[in-house]
Design brief:
single chain
Length: 321
Amino acid sequence: MSVRQWLWLTLLATFWGSAFILMAIALPTFPPLVIVTSRMCVAAIVLNGVLITQHLRSQSITPQPSQPRHRLYPSSLSLWLQCGGLSLLGNLLPFGLVVWAQQHITASLASILIAAAPIFTVVLAVFIAGERLTLVRALGITLGFSGVVVLIGPDVLQGFSLQGAGELAILGAAMSYALSGFWGRRFKHLPPQLVSTMTVTMGSLIILPLCLAAIATNRLQIATLSLHSWPLSAIFAVIALGVFSMALAYLIYYRLLAEVGVVKTSLVSFLVPFCALLLGTTLLNEQLDAAALLGMALILSGLAVLDGRLLRPLSLNRRAK
């Protein structure tokens, strides 16, 4: 990859890694439901604005008689409902679980645990897609789940605790992300940017009425919703979640997919925990113990084995000999 593409990849990892920090900043002021709703709605506004702008620019070019103007959004109700299902699995459920969990665990730990999502994807591929479980994949899965066990520890089995529940919630979010990847396969015939915009839009339409109903029926902490009690840092964090950690991150992600392909773009999975750890240490004064560092090393090693980059040099050396 070129230097410019590496910078895009680093920026993407920073946007996704900062999401955990921004949620930690917003949580003392806003309830989890408000954070998720605001993130979805802000991202929907930005993504639809970008899509409409691009469409208007393309329509400003006079088409040839044989090239009629195309519709911006598909008219199929079934397709919109499918995007709603994708948003439930890939946005609403994992966002809700992560932001709830961060009330009880650190942002750094949450970012490390969520890195297990690709490992869940490989496991689910064996059962859902019927893919073969090779020795290399088994090794990667073993390393990854060993890291999860080290991170969570035996305390989860000794009884209920909010910290343990938060850690399990992050793993639930990782599983939801993995499942959304299989659901998203049905949209291969559509442009990725259009799918992401439709998905976020449907997610906003689903969660906004629920949030407004919760506020109207006094089911949220209304005291935290007083305009005079909102610190600017919390307001910025909520807006930044939608603009940077979601909308712009999606645009960068799909740009990298088009330029360098899915394999090289997947390197972002290795960079996100490090970005979140650096930001958490710098901005939130979070510290990780030896067990957390060991767990992160095991999970990232498992991802590297599954990706093939760790074992590829060894196989090349054997062939050379």
